[in-house]
Specification:
It contains eleven helices and nine strands. With about 240 residues, the protein is an alpha/beta fold. The N and C termini lie far apart (about 45 Å).
């Protein structure tokens, strides 16, 4: 689903979201309230410049529109793998984006992520996975890396990793596996016809802004130990 169809389904034709290259930004009216919208398209690799541009929108929203909800529209192939961006400090730019999203949350802005097409690696970690909650469309693609790449890194065979992926969502790509792990709170609709407006309305009405990922992962059987370990660490403090 392309970003124009997503925007139309959520906000109708009169929204103020615009694309400039791979960058998405603007605002839109939803149920009588204005939302800030920022994101990416074209399976964009998130590089130094794009990360800083997204961060600027978040900071401007915090400064100029206190309390305004922020919707992150996510379509990324991950971080930009280019020497130019490495030399400019892509790691710091992406960390800055994550810190800006965290600042918005701490200042009382509801921050929601929606994976409408593709979410990979660092481009996803510093956006949707830092939001209050991340949601996805049924046909979206979410993964850290493909099994062949995982095999090269871990030195385990593709056959073994494929077998592990059947029982452990940590090894497997796909929206439903991220739902099981708690990284994605909900899927909006189904493949036959996602109701995006209903999904956004329910997400905005959810007053719980705690980080529930570990708890959700435990309840859904996808991450059985993360919440327990976190609780032990807190108890030790």
């Amino acid at each position: 689903m392309n970003w124009q169809d997503v925007a139309q389904a959520l906000f109708g034709p009169a929204h103020g979201i615009r694309a400039e290259g791979d960058f998405l930004g603007g605002s839109a009216e939803f149920d009588g309230a204005t939302l800030a919208v920022v994101g990416s398209t074209n399976h964009a690799p998130i590089g130094y410049a794009l990360a800083l541009r997204q961060a600027a929108v978040v900071l401007d929203t915090v400064a100029q529109h206190p309390g305004r909800a922020i919707l992150l529209l996510i379509d990324t192939q991950g971080q930009q793998l280019r020497r130019h961006d490495e030399l400019l400090g892509i790691h710091r730019a992406m960390a800055h984006l994550g810190c800006c999203i965290d600042l918005a949350r701490r200042r009382g802005h509801r921050v929601l992520g929606l994976v409408y097409d593709q979410a990979l690696s660092g481009g996803f970690i510093t956006s949707g996975l830092i939001a209050d909650a991340c949601h996805a469309l049924p046909a979206a693609e979410i993964r850290v890396m493909r099994i062949p790449a995982m095999a090269r890194v871990t030195k385990l065979s593709e056959a073994l990793l494929t077998e592990l992926a059947q029982a452990n969502p940590v090894f497997a790509p796909g929206v439903q596996n991220y739902v099981r792990m708690g990284g994605v709170r909900s899927v909006w609709g189904d493949a036959a016809g996602p109701d995006l407006a209903a999904g956004l309305r329910a997400a905005l009405a959810d007053a719980d802004t705690r980080d529930r990922r570990a708890d959700d992962g435990r309840a859904r059987g996808g991450r059985r130990l993360a919440a327990a370990v976190a609780e032990q660490v807190l108890a030790a403090d």
